[in-house]
# Entry
Amino acid sequence: MSISLRPVTAENWRALIKLKVREDQSHFVASNLYSIAQAQFGFDDEGHWDLFPFGAYDGEKPVGFLMYCFNFNHSRYQAFILRLMVDEKFQGKGYGREIMTLTLGRFRADERIKSVGISYEPENEGARKLYASLGFVEPGELLEGETLAVLNLR
Ligand SMILES: CC(C)(COP(=O)(O)OP(=O)(O)OC[C@H]1O[C@@H](n2cnc3c(N)ncnc32)[C@H](O)[C@@H]1OP(=O)(O)O)[C@@H](O)C(=O)NCCC(=O)NCCS
# Structure
């Protein structure tokens, strides 16, 4: 398996919006179409967060989607992983872990990023286990109804 992250472009967005999670997982993550729309605007919290959406590819095959955002002036976390999904056909094969490992490697290489935030529905045990195994710790707070977890990189 060799996972790569490719920015969403005019060429690949149609293939990426076809990726879907299982019906019973649909409340865990927004659709990729929604995320790509959201990425155009960013949002404000202690300054502006810019959003970066990516397709996750195994070779030439799109298998998942990731979106993170940066605000290097934020006091608590300077990178936030807003979206992660692996298409239902490709789950349980290690892609989710590989996408996260690749992403955290990028963040570790950037000195402006001291901590990374992520959030998930409280009942999303799969996501919680994956992030905990990568070092994310729950401070015991909710962020817009989701469980917050933070990874300190430096
Ligand atoms: C969460 C998700 C991205 C994981 O991707 P994946 O490719 O299936 O995950 P992997 O095969 O890399 O498994 C990684 C770890 O996730 C955990 N995990 C994944 N799905 C799980 C499940 N249904 N139950 C328990 N643990 C699970 C395991 O701890 C696994 O650990 P291991 O590597 O020691 O086996 C994927 O299941 C998904 O898209 N889910 C629906 C959307 C979602 O919940 N996104 C996260 C929103 S915050």
Remarks:
- The beta strands are 3-7, 43-44, 48-58, 61-70, 79-86, 115-120, 142-143, 146-152.
- The two ends are 29 Å apart (CA to CA).
- The pocket of coenzyme A is lined by residues 21, 25, 28-29, 84-86, 91-97, 120, 124-127, 129-130 (CB under 6 Å).
- The domain at 3-152 is CATH 3.40.630.30 (Aminopeptidase).
